[in-house]
C-alpha cells in the first residue's frame, strides 16, 4: 500500500506557526511579486500566494507587467521595487514569457540576497553549493532554503524519510527544483543522479533509485513501470491539461508500486507556498532584530 505524503496538511501547520510569529512583530512583513504576461498557471500560483499571505498576516503586492515589456524596462521597474526598502522579500514569478526568460538571471541579480525569498539568484546558487545558505545583518544570521527544497525536506522530516546513503534521481534541471536540490541532497549524504532533457532513457536511472524527485512539468512523464518497488517519489512538477493541473507522476500506475508518494497537485505545491512565506517572515524578523527559529 502506498502512503500519500500530505503536503497540504503540513502546509496548514506551517501557516499556523507563521501566523504566531507574525503576531509578535511590530511591523507586518511585506512581499513583492513581479508577474509578467498572461500565463494562467503563473496567475493561479500568484493568487494562491496572495491568499495564503493574507491568512498569515503578510502584505503581498503584485506588480503586473505585459508580455511586451522589454528587459530594460523590467529592470528599471525591478530596481525601483528593491530600492524602496519596503519589502522584506521580492520574487519574480517564473517562467518569464518569451525572450525575457533568457534574461532571467540578469533580472534575478537585481534582487539583493537578503530579499531574495525564492533563493534563485546566481549568488544564492553559489551559497547553496558552498553550504552558506544564510543572510546576515548587524551580526545576526538567518538560514534560508529555496521553497521547493524546504518543502521536500519538511515532508521528509514529517514522515521520517532519510536521504543519507540513498540513491536519488532528480528528474529535471530547472531553477526551482533540480538546481537547488542537488547540492543540498549531496550535503545530506545522498548519491544523486540528474536526468535532463538530454537523457535518452530516464527509466535506466529511476528503476534503481531509492528516491525520485521530479520537477519537469510534463504530464505523467514517470509511470509505475519506471520505478523500483518500495521507492519514495516526490512530484514537484505541474502542467495544465484541459484546464486542470496535473503532475509529472502517473499516480494510478505508481500506487501500489512505491512505498510513499507526494502527488501533484496537492503535495509539494501548497507546502512550497508556505515555505516561501516562511522565508519572508524570517527576513522580516532579521530586519526587525527579532530572534528567528532559523537564526544561526
Automatic annotation (TrEMBL):
CDD domains: NAD_bind_m-THF_DH_Cyclohyd. Residues 147-285 form the Tetrahydrofolate dehydrogenase/cyclohydrolase NAD(P)-binding domain. Keywords: Amino-acid biosynthesis, Histidine biosynthesis, Hydrolase, Methionine biosynthesis, Multifunctional enzyme, NADP, One-carbon metabolism, Oxidoreductase, Purine biosynthesis. The keyword Lyase does not apply. GO terms for biological process: L-histidine biosynthetic process; methionine biosynthetic process; purine nucleotide biosynthetic process; tetrahydrofolate interconversion. It comes from the Bacteria. Gene3D superfamilies: Leucine Dehydrogenase, chain A, domain 1, NAD(P)-binding Rossmann-like Domain. One of its GO terms (cellular component) is cytosol. Belongs to the tetrahydrofolate dehydrogenase/cyclohydrolase family. Homodimer. This is Bifunctional protein FolD.
